């Protein structure tokens, strides 16, 4: 089972989500109150499931989803008006309020989907992407999520794997 990161601006919401998930046999890795905390937790946890309860005070949901999509599945639990504004293609949505059983069923479904996915970047490819991100961070003053997103977007637009584009970055510098 992958690690679960809970994110909600209100502490009571985080506690309630944790209680529901723990009661269903899931273990919560980290509880976060901001997008910055979520990014740090995802970097530390690696492959994880992030459950966002509504909007966070320091970032837009879509922006956070683009930043962490390589390392996390994202379940957005929110009111309908927020759900329709979020357009990230890999964002799973669940309307709030919902019964705890719907939440745990969604978490179980996402866990099963993750087990069926292709393996993620490992070894040399992952190291190459990390080196290229560090280079962009130094040369262009980008944050880690910005460097990741820059490599990712260029690679997608040009039909390349991120590791292949990262090699090009390293070779040209």
Task: Write structural notes for this entry.
The chain has two domains: about 5-115, Rossmann fold (3-Layer(aba) Sandwich), CATH 3.40.50.2300; about 125-170, Winged helix-like DNA-binding domain superfamily/Winged helix DNA-binding domain (Arc Repressor Mutant, subunit A, Orthogonal Bundle), CATH 1.10.10. About 55% of the residues lie in helices and about 15% in strands. It contains eight helices and five strands. The chain has a five-stranded parallel β-sheet with strand order 2-1-3-4-5, sandwiched between helices.
Q: State the CATH architecture of the largest domain.
A: 3-Layer(aba) Sandwich
Q: Briefly, what CATH class of the largest domain?
A: Alpha Beta
Q: Please give the number of β-strands.
A: 5
Strand order of the largest sheet: 2-1-3-4-5
Terminal residue distance: 40 Å
Secondary-structure element order, as H and E? EHEHEHEHEHHHH
Portion of residues in beta strands equals 15-25%
Query: Which consecutive residue ranges, at least 5 long each, have pLDDT under 50?
Result: none
Q: Can you say what the CATH homologous superfamily of the largest domain is?
A: Response regulator
For the sheet with most strands, the description reads: 5 strands, parallel
Structural class, by secondary structure, is alpha/beta
Tally of helical segments: 8
Q: Report the C-alpha radius of gyration, rounded.
A: 17 Å
Shape summary:
elongated
Number of domains: 2
At the third CATH level, what is the topology name of the largest domain?
Rossmann fold
What do the pLDDT scores average to? Answer: 88
Overall helicity: 55-70%
